[in-house]
């Protein structure tokens, strides 16, 4: 039970914060909070591959799509628990979404993770696009029209609690994995593959593990997305959605969970903040700003806002410094 | 049978377009070992540049060889300038950074050009002026060979031969090969890698400029995202042929064009865009060096 | 012949048209301290790369305890008991000294994902044991005080030592050292050699090392293999090597006779 102490405390805190959001903000902000959580899941999971393991995936949207379609299809067509237990049903579907996406991640990862750098990026981009084209051609999933009227939660608070539950599962899973021998294996792959192999690390195995775990949470993010938007179609999961995830990881700092979360918030909220400007000028500046930010970060602060540090590290440094003075 | 021959012609024509862009990818990869994601957007800017030149000087009303020449030159100049600016501002500061950072920057530049162009040129498609009338050179039954098909194939073959000559028979070419093999050693031998790299960007971008005018003649709708798909396919073509290899790029592009045409003709057009990626994945998994490329062993 | 630990059977490595190593054969006995020497470009590191699976030999095979290593990936060979260091140090530079060593213990980890997520007793105890083991190994090379510093912050000599510690942490039967004393001064080299002799005793190890410092190789190696231009030109005791005409010619060049 000791293992559950921190997650439960965090969950309680998040739920308490949710009460404030429920009563303090309007529906628009509430919806924004939900999209921040979807992006958080995307960023944290991609960080595992692009940040910690040093691989470069540009097809994260494909796995999100698989998860979204599974949950959408399941909630539209299946019913094995009474409607009063819909939250539990959705939780099970989300796991299903994750597992299906993880399976896809395994199938994609096994052949393509032999490739490095640019090539891996292009191949994952290719797989992402192939998944999307396949969805376009699947009539039972609505083809280009997609799936509409996907059941959601009855209230904002339930949606929020569901999101927080998954974010914490994702966070603690990755956090603990990174503090284990497997996590060190991921890092060794990033640092030097040849040395890692020579010290007995099955680098392909490590990459596939990272990819599968990452795909799982992308699938879950897709499931949440399906419930929150109630409507999905293949164009929700284009190359740009993958790029969006990459932007979050890169800006936040490759190899920092805190960075991923912070960037997910910025990247979700910024376009909304820019909306008045856009209404005024009629120009969509969002992607222009992101792309410029991407270039500038790479040139001026190549490790991202947080680098590899976590908020706790920064806090510790600050405490140490103030103790000295 | 006649249909098949017509598809063959169309496929080669399409492949020649890919070839012009693929050459730019392959040259930059050959020298810097990076995928210049922004290359296809340089091509897009070339199309807009010649569109605006044509409008500004009112030459759209006078189709002919002269007009074509003016547009080609303006597009080439514009693309070359843009290519050099991108290299100078975005890529050069990262010359010694990890490959991942360079890749991310390239993606950033690509997105910046795409969305910046939407702001500058507007997101709606524009109609490229009719520079030259496309006419039938030769017909046999239903099969038609048009002037465009011949031009674009001719230009891409010429470009390939020219590049081959440039790389293997000239002094600059020797310097390019030296920088490609080891930039720091090359600089010890008196070659300025920065200059050579800039030169490579100029040549590659100029070819994209040529491509943009030729494509504009055939498919007159131009928009800021027009480079995305064609760029992906040209890139796949370069990888298929063996990236870094000039002849490979043209060979790969022709194969790409033909197979795409055949898939659309005999299967379904919805799979058109998935085809490129399927080819890419297959080639990278089974023959990562491409058809004409050579595999290099990592030194330990 | 049961005391042969590692055997190279006519291993050849061809890069395109170039034969970097040509039909090299040798045996290393259990517990031996053997040396691999030769002029620059003789193919020593290529031999190491073939022994550890970084390259698959074009012809021939490597045997460990009588079993072929053909087709095995480097990590599998590491699991079989061959560890190595690199000529141009390949540490995990961004990670701490301790993490560098812990990574090498991964093959002995027996907990799974669930143990990790639920932080089971098995997980905690294994982690603790691994850390103790890693610290003990670091202590041999007096690196324990640097455990939590990034590997890249170590001075050159200590980085070489850390590579040896990392190799030892895989619990190898044989350790291959690629120029362990490169860049060290005389007394550092001397100290290193004493440590190598010590760990060999302590861990019951077999050692094969590449070294340029002739004096040093002659001083501690029991058996020496000499390569030149990818071919084995001599093998034997230091005394034998010192008096070999072919070895002297390889190093000094043949005297032209008209």
CATH homologous superfamily of the largest domain in chain C? P-loop containing nucleotide triphosphate hydrolases
Q: In total, how many beta strands of chain C?
A: 10
In total, how many domains does the architecture of chain C comprise? 2
Number of domains of chain A: 1
**Rg of chain A, nearest Å:** 20 Å
The first-level CATH class of the largest domain in chain C is given as Alpha Beta
Mean pLDDT of chain A: 90
Structural class of chain A: mainly alpha
Largest interface: A-B, 42 and 41 residues
Percent of residues of chain C in helical segments? Answer: 25-40%
Distance between the termini of chain C: 46 Å
Write a structural description:
The complex is a heterotrimer of chains A (325), B (300) and C (258). Chain A is mostly helical. Chain A has helices at residues 2-24, 27-52, 60-77, 86-112, 117-136, 156-178, 181-191, 193-198, 203-229, 239-252, 257-273, 275-281, 286-300, 311-324. In chain A, helix 2 packs across helix 11 (257-273), helix 3 packs antiparallel against helix 4 and helix 7 packs across helix 9 (203-229). Chain B is mainly alpha-helical. Chain B has a two-stranded antiparallel ribbon. Chain B has a two-stranded antiparallel sheet with strand order 2-3. In chain B, helix 2 packs across helix 9 (226-241). Chain B has helices at 2-32, 39-56, 65-91, 99-121, 147-169, 171-181, 183-188, 193-218, 226-241, 246-266, 272-286; strands at residues 126-127, 136-140, 143-146, 221-222. Chain B has a domain at 19-225. Chain C has 258 residues and is an alpha/beta fold. Classes of the chains: A mainly alpha (325), B mainly alpha (300), C alpha/beta (258). Chain A binds chain B through residues 54, 56, 58, 111-112, 114-115, 117-119, 121-123, 125-127, 129-130, 133-134, 136-137, 194, 243, 246, 250, 254, 283-288, 290-295, 298-299, 302, and chain B through 34-35, 90, 93-94, 97-105, 107-112, 114-116, 118-119, 235, 239, 270-271, 273-274, 276-278, 280-281, 284-285, 288, 298, 300.
């Amino acid at each position: 039970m000791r293992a559950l102490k921190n997650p439960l405390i965090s969950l309680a805190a998040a739920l308490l914060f949710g009460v404030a959001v429920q009563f303090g903000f309007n529906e628009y902000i509430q919806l924004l909070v939900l999209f921040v959580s979807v992006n958080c899941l995307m960023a944290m999971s991609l960080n595992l591959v692009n940040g910690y393991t040093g691989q470069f995936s540009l097809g994260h949207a494909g796995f999100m799509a698989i998860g979204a379609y599974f949950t959408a299809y399941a909630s539209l067509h299946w019913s094995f628990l009474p409607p009063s237990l819909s939250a539990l049903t959705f939780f099970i579907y989300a796991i299903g979404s994750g597992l299906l996406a993880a399976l896809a991640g395994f199938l994609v990862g096994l052949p393509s993770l032999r490739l490095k750098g640019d090539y891996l990026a292009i191949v994952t981009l290719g797989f992402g696009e192939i998944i999307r084209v396949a969805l376009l051609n699947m009539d039972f999933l609505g083809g280009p029209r997609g799936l509409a009227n996907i059941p959601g939660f009855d209230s904002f608070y339930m949606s929020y609690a569901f999101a927080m539950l998954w974010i914490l599962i994702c966070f603690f899973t990755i956090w603990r994995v990174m503090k284990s021998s497997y996590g060190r294996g991921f890092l060794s792959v990033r640092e030097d593959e040849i040395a890692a192999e020579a010290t007995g690390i099955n680098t392909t195995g490590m990459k596939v593990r990272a990819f599968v775990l990452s795909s799982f949470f992308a699938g879950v993010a897709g499931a949440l997305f399906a419930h929150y938007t109630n409507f999905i179609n293949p164009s929700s999961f284009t190359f740009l959605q993958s790029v969006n995830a990459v932007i979050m990881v890169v800006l936040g700092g490759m190899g920092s969970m805190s960075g991923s979360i912070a960037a997910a918030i910025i990247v979700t909220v910024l376009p909304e903040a820019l909306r008045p400007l856009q209404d005024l000028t009629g120009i969509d500046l969002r992607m222009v700003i992101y792309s410029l930010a991407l270039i500038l970060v790479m040139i001026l602060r190549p490790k991202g806002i947080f680098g590899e540090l976590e908020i706790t590290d920064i806090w510790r440094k600050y405490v140490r410094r103030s103790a000295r003075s | 049978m006649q249909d098949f021959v017509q598809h063959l012609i169309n496929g080669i024509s399409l492949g020649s377009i890919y070839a012009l862009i693929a050459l730019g990818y392959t040259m930059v990869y050959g020298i810097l070992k990076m995928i210049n994601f922004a290359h296809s957007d340089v091509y897009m800017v070339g199309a807009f540049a010649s569109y605006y030149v044509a409008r500004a000087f009112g030459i759209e009303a006078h189709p002919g060889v002269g007009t074509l020449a003016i547009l080609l030159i303006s597009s080439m100049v514009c693309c070359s300038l843009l290519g050099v600016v991108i290299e100078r501002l975005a890529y050069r500061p990262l010359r010694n950074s990890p490959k991942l950072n360079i890749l991310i920057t390239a993606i950033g530049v690509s997105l910046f050009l795409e969305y910046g162009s939407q702001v500058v040129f507007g997101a709606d498609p524009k109609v490229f002026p009719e520079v030259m009338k496309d006419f039938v050179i030769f017909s046999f039954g239903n099969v038609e060979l048009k002037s465009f098909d011949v031009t674009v194939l001719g230009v891409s073959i010429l470009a390939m031969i020219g590049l081959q000559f440039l790389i293997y028979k000239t002094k600059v070419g020797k310097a390019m090969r030296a920088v490609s093999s080891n930039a720091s050693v090359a600089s010890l031998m008196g070659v300025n890698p920065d200059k050579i790299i800039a030169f490579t960007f100029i040549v590659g971008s100029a070819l994209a400029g040529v491509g943009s005018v030729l494509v504009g003649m055939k498919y007159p709708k131009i928009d800021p995202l027009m480079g995305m798909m064609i760029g992906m396919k040209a890139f796949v073509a370069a990888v298929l042929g063996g990236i870094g290899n000039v002849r490979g790029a043209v060979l790969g592009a022709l194969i790409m064009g033909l197979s795409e045409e055949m898939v659309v003709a005999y299967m379904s057009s919805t799979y058109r865009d998935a085809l490129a990626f399927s080819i890419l994945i297959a080639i990278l998994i089974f023959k990562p060096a491409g058809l004409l490329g050579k595999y290099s062993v990592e030194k330990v | 012949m049961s005391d042969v630990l590692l055997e190279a059977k006519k291993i050849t490595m061809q890069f395109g048209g170039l034969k970097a190593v040509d039909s090299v054969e040798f045996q290393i006995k259990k517990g031996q301290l053997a040396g691999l020497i030769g002029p620059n470009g003789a193919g020593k590191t290529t031999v190491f790369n073939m022994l550890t699976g970084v390259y698959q030999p074009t012809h021939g095979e490597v045997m460990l305890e009588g079993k072929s290593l053909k087709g095995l990936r480097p990590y599998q060979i590491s699991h079989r008991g061959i560890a190595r260091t690199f000529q141009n140090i390949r540490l995990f530079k961004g990670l701490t000294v301790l993490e560098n060593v812990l990574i090498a213990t991964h093959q002995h980890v027996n907990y799974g994902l669930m143990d990790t997520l639920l932080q089971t007793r098995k997980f905690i105890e294994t982690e603790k044991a691994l850390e103790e083991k890693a610290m003990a190994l670091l202590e041999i090379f007096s690196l324990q005080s640097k455990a939590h510093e990034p590997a890249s912050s170590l001075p050159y000599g200590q980085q070489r030592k850390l590579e040896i510690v990392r190799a030892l942490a895989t619990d190898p039967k044989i350790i291959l050292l690629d120029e362990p004393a490169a860049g060290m001064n005389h007394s550092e080299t001397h100290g290193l050699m004493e440590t190598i002799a010590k760990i060999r005793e302590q861990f019951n190890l077999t050692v094969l090392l590449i070294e340029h410092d002739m004096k040093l190789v002659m001083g501690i190696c029991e058996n020496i293999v000499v390569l030149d231009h990818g071919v084995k030109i001599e093998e034997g005791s230091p005394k034998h090597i010192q008096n070999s005409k072919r070895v002297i010619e390889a190093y000094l060049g043949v005297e032209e006779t008209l």
